[in-house]
Amino acid sequence: AGCGYGGSCFPKDIRALQNTAGEYGLHLSILESVEKVNRAQKLSVLDKIRTRFGEHLDGKQFALWGLSFKPNTNDMREAPSRIVINGLVSRGASVNAYDPVAMKDAQKIYADDKVVKFSDNPLSTLNNAEALIILTEWKAFRSPDFDAIKNDLRNPIIIDGRNLYDPSHMRDMGFEYISVGRPSNLLG
Predict the structure, then answer these.
(1) Is 9 a catalytic site residue?
(2) Hey, which residues does 117 pair with through a beta bridge?
(3) What is the mean pLDDT of the chain?
(4) HSE (CB half, 13 Å, CA atoms) of 164?
(5) Comparing 1 with 88, which gets the higher pLDDT?
(6) What is the pLDDT of residues 25-60, one digit of tens each?
(7) Beta 157-160 vs 116-118: how paired, if at all?
(8) CB-based contacts of 188: which residues, under 8 Å, 6+ apart?
(9) Torsion of CA 55, 85, 46, 17, to 10 degrees
(10) What secondary structure letter does DSSP report for 132?
(11) What is the pLDDT of residue 32?
């Protein structure tokens, strides 16, 4: 898995630029700002979950689509999914996740975690889940079977970390749609 713009090397590259600038007595506040926004964006999905479901998630299960940091890669080094999964589990929730490419890597990362499970297709993650959380904009997630999603979830709630769907259309279809989105193209 290569780096690419906004990839797993992005935070490391930002820190390297800051260190180099510091060696020459320069302070690059724009880089600090970008790094802070990048970190905050990863935490914003958890903030939305906390706002909707509360701080304690004991016994709640969440479906999660998208483990890699971007489509067409298995790279999970700086992926928001790791922060979200860890945040959910630390609050007592369980996770059932799917990704078209990053499943094997994720299974290795969470091999010892009994409350993180993986499904072989996106729809099988939904059974009995409180909500669907989308973290990677894979093409396969753009036009899912919304009726199946609505029927399989415990509650018809989608927390969309990538702004894949039109909010008013989702509400018209009977979903509680919580969009997180991206504040900047700099973030990958």
Answers:
(1) yes
(2) 96
(3) 84
(4) 22
(5) 88
(6) 655 565 555 555 555 555 689 999 999 999 999 999
(7) unpaired
(8) 4, 5, 6, 7, 10, 38, 69, 70
(9) 140
(10) E
(11) 57
Q: Active-site residue among 9, 83, 173, 186?
A: 9
- The dihedral built from the CA positions of residue 74, 78, 82 and 84, taken in this order, carries a sign that is negative
**Predicted confidence (pLDDT) per residue in 96-125, tens digit:** 999 999 999 999 999 999 999 999 999 999
pLDDT band for 140, please (50, 70, 90 cuts). Answer: very high
Residue 25: CB atoms within 10 Å: 6
Q: 61 near 130, Cβ under 8 Å?
A: yes
Of the candidates 11, 159, 13, which has an alpha carbon nearest to the alpha carbon of residue 78?
11
Question: DSSP states of 37-106 as a string?
Answer: HHHHHHHHHHHHHHHHH-S--TT-EEEEE--SSSTT----TT-HHHHHHHHHHHTT-EEEEE-SS-HHHH
Segment (H or E) for 22 = helix 10-23
Instruction: Please tell me the distance from the alpha carbon of residue 162 to that of residue 105, in angstroms, as a whole number.
Output: 22
Which pLDDT value is given to residue 41? 58
In sequence order, which residues have a C-beta less than 8 Å from that of residue 4 and are 6 or more positions away?
Answer: 70, 73, 188
CA 29 to chain centre: 27
